[in-house]
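User: Could you go from structure to sequence for me? I need the amino acid at each position, not a summary. Structure tokens:
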């Protein structure tokens, strides 16, 4: 079973993502801040992180992505950044931080699953 860590500060979005993923038999954990996401990622070494870009707590998604990429124990973890920021500069920042994919909000459950399947292939 593949593991997914959802790092998203909005509980209703985390719930929507969790419900979407439950149909596909993933082991799911959640974090509401960047620091909590880093802590949980180090502990669970997820196959995939779904990472919000804009979060409170002093560490945003771009910084979390950079730190995950700098951790040799997490080098196999795939990262999909989720953001309401849709400018090409935002996408470029996500990609240069090491994200495998960048999905803009709002997205449909179907879009999310397509991107997850593509990244985990």
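Assistant: Here is the amino acid at each position, in order:
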């Amino acid at each position: 079973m593949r593991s997914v860590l959802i790092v998203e500060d909005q509980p209703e979005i985390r719930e929507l993502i969790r419900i979407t993923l439950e149909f596909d038999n993933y082991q799911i954990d959640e974090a509401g801040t960047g620091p909590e996401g880093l802590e949980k990622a180090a502990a669970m070494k997820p196959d995939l992180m779904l990472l919000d870009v804009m979060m409170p707590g002093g560490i945003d998604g771009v910084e979390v992505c950079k730190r995950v990429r700098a951790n040799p124990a997490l080098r196999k973890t795939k990262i999909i950044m989720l953001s309401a920021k849709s400018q090409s500069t935002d996408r470029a920042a996500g990609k240069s931080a090491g994200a495998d994919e960048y999905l803009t909000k709002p997205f449909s459950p179907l879009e999310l699953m397509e991107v997850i399947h593509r990244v985990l292939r």
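One structural detail worth keeping in mind: The helical segments are 11-22, 34-44, 61-70, 88-97, 109-120.
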